[in-house]
Recover the amino acids of this structure.
């Protein structure tokens, strides 16, 4: 009970942070759940077929990540734009990189260490580990430890969802240099359709890239869309509820049909913009349950693959022996694994994300300027 009380109190304290865009927290939480469901559902033929037939958007394997990239670009501007809008000082740049490292690296390290603990006894001294390009190879493990598994490795790695976090980490190093380019709203207006066309071209030529050098291009285009929409987010032009409803409906339709899904990339920035500006979206997505999911979303995204790789098959085997096979047993397995993933994510937030973030900052004597300290704590 003591740990449960600490868990609840820590989560509630984190939710009360200032300068958060609450509706984006809620959206991030819902999207993280969709990604988790996707990775669990495709593990069984029965749930994959059922989802493809009745809820195809739930197993769309790229839309959520594209929205993550766009939201990340926006949030980075929301927190740091004023620091870099006029000048880029080395001290500010170093503090920014350190803050992002402290935010994302502890959970990345936790995920790869846990996978090494569980998987090394299985793959050690086999081609899966000794080969240069195997998913569970030593080469992939080293790249993951340095947060380079996305752009540097052209195939799935140990913690396969983490490719996007790796891409984002690389993008942080160039992000401050883009801020001065978008000082005027008209530049952002021009940039958005160009970025959309380039993203569309990437999808139609090579598909939704998730590993290798082109994954960096994939992330950059959507991340820069987020930077551009930051300059438009206070215009009031995107607050219409009708516009929000049409955007959401169009995205759901496009993302549900493989022949049309590449067109959805044009609507990703518009979705983020309308959710930021629309008052009803803010009320709905700022509900406690969605904000809580948003708080858990990073650890959930980074750690659910462990459950998929290590636990899910065993849970399914137990349920199958007791209740027999069938789609219902597979869905029960998914439900149990999603709940377990949420619990692991909550423990990670309380015992890894928060504490190690603070320790890393203290270790490197991270001292943000007073004017942006509160904003950084909420990013």
């Amino acid at each position: 009970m003591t740990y449960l009380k600490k868990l609840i109190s820590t989560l509630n304290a984190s939710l009360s942070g200032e300068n958060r865009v609450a509706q984006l927290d809620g959206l991030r939480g819902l999207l993280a759940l969709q990604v988790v469901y996707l990775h669990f559902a495709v593990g069984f033929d029965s749930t994959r077929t059922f989802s493809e037939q009745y809820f195809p958007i739930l197993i769309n394997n790229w839309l959520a990540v594209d929205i993550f990239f766009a939201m990340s670009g926006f949030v980075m501007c929301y927190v740091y734009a004023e620091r870099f809008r006029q000048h880029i000082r080395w001290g500010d740049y170093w503090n920014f990189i350190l803050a992002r490292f402290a935010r994302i690296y502890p959970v990345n390290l936790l995920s790869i260490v846990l996978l090494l603990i569980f998987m090394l006894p299985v793959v050690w001294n086999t081609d899966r580990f000794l080969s240069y390009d195997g998913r569970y190879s030593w080469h992939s493990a080293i790249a993951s430890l340095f947060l380079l598994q996305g752009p540097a490795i052209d195939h799935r790695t140990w913690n396969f969802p983490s490719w996007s976090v790796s891409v984002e980490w690389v993008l942080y190093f160039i992000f401050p240099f883009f801020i001065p380019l978008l000082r005027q709203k008209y530049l952002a207006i021009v940039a958005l359709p160009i970025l959309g066309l380039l993203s569309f071209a990437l999808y139609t030529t090579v598909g939704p890239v998730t590993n290798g050098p082109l994954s960096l291009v994939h992330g950059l285009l959507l991340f820069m869309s987020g930077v551009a929409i930051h300059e438009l987010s206070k215009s009031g032009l995107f607050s219409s509820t009708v516009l929000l409803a049409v955007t959401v409906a169009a995205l759901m339709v496009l993302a549900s049909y493989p022949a049309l899904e590449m067109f959805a990339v044009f609507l990703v920035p518009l979705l983020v913009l309308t959710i930021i500006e629309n008052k009803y979206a803010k009320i709905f997505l700022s509900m406690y349950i969605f904000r809580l999911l948003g708080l858990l979303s990073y650890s959930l995204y980074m750690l659910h693959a462990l459950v998929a790789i290590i636990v899910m098959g065993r849970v399914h085997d137990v349920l199958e022996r007791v209740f027999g096979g069938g789609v219902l047993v597979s869905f029960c397995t998914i439900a149990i694994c999603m709940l377990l993933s949420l619990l692991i994510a909550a423990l990670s937030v309380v015992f890894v994300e928060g504490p190690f973030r603070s320790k890393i900052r203290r270790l490197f004597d991270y001292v943000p300027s007073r004017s942006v300290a509160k904003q950084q704590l909420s990013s």
Notes: The chain has one domain: 14-378.
